[in-house]
Amino acid sequence: MAQGRIELIATPIGNLADLSPRAREVLAFADILAAEDTRHTSGLLRQLGIDRPLVSLHEHNEAARARELVERAQEGAVVALVTDAGMPLVSDPGFLTVRAAIDAGVPVSAVPGPSAVLLALALSGLPVERFCFEGFLPARAAARRAALRALSGEARTMVFFEAPHRIAGTLADMKEAFGADREAAVARELTKMHESVYRGTLGSLLQIAANDTNFARGEITVVVAGAAGEAAPDDAFVRRALDLLSAELPPGRAAALVAQLTGRRRADVYALLPHGGGGSGNDNDNDNNEEVEAP
Question: In sequence order, what are the residues at sequence separation of 6 or more whose Cβ sits closer than 8 angstroms to the Cβ of residue 20?
């Protein structure tokens, strides 16, 4: 008997041409497709000329259906998971099924494809070296504000999904939690005909939301810059601190204290001392084993 498996298929987020040949192949030959919305996926399959058995897999039935799908895979079936757009599991159903498959020793593989998260990041103009995906914020205002307050110190760029009817309220709450000057971008209808990306501060984006009737239409992804870290002390500050402390302490002890205060390496701080080091408090630099040899 052929070995069954679970396949996660990324589907287009707006432009059908973004579906990969590999994704088409798996959709065409899978024994069963588990879809977030069978009506939506039926339309996709019709456009592709594919006719395969469909079952629903959504947040309300996945707990029960996951076991059934895993059993089908154990019997040798190829089970393909698809959602309305993008990769299953990412703010969509699929996690319980994948977890059950892994626990049962059923192979799980994925066919990559379009991602609103990555596209929005790339188009935002904000740092992308480190980021976190927060999905949809709570719908209730109080819970949403609490979630945003908890993220106020997050240094990584943040990515959110939001519904059109909540985007203005969410931006207002972000402005309150992160500050009006925090840089952000709102990407809507990505890969579609009316794709738009609005960039600016949270304060300016909130103004655009109030004046642009198209702002709150379609699928929306919000990207927000992370919190700025405190500026590291410069060499002038370090030297001034060394001058003050080395007047009372041995050079090694002074360098150790300044390094602790500034986060710098002790040897690097010591190198900023005048040649020979020394201080009026104690010429013996072996006090408490704190001696640091100059590089």
Answer: 10, 111, 112, 113
Any residues with CB less than 8 A from the CB of 207 and at least 6 apart, and which? none
**DSSP symbol at 12:** -
Taking residues 43-72, what's their average pLDDT?
Answer: 96
Encode pLDDT of 152-196 as tens digits. 999 999 999 999 999 999 999 999 999 999 999 999 999 999 999
Residue ending a domain, among 197, 224, 251, is 224
What's the CA gap between 51 and 193, in Å, rounded? 28
In a domain, 295, yes or no: no
Q: Are residues 43 and 133 in the same domain?
A: no
Same domain, 207 and 240: no
- Domain of 63? 5-111
Q: Are residues 103 and 72 in the same domain?
A: yes
Query: H helices within 92-156, ranges in order?
Result: 95-103, 116-124, 141-150
Q: Note whether 198 and 258 are same-domain residues.
A: no
The Cα–Cα gap between 116 and 295 comes to 50
Give CA–CA dist 273/239, Å, rounded: 7
pLDDT band, very low/low/confident/very high, at 237 (cuts 50, 70, 90)? confident
Residue 215 tokens, joined? 């702002």
pLDDT tens figures, 82-135:
999 999 999 999 999 999 999 999 999 999 999 999 999 999 999 999 999 999
CA dihedral 15, 189, 130, 87 (to 10 degrees): -50
Q: Two tokens at 101?
A: 């498959």
Number of domains in the chain: 3
Q: What integer pLDDT is reported at residue 273 of this predicted model? A: 80
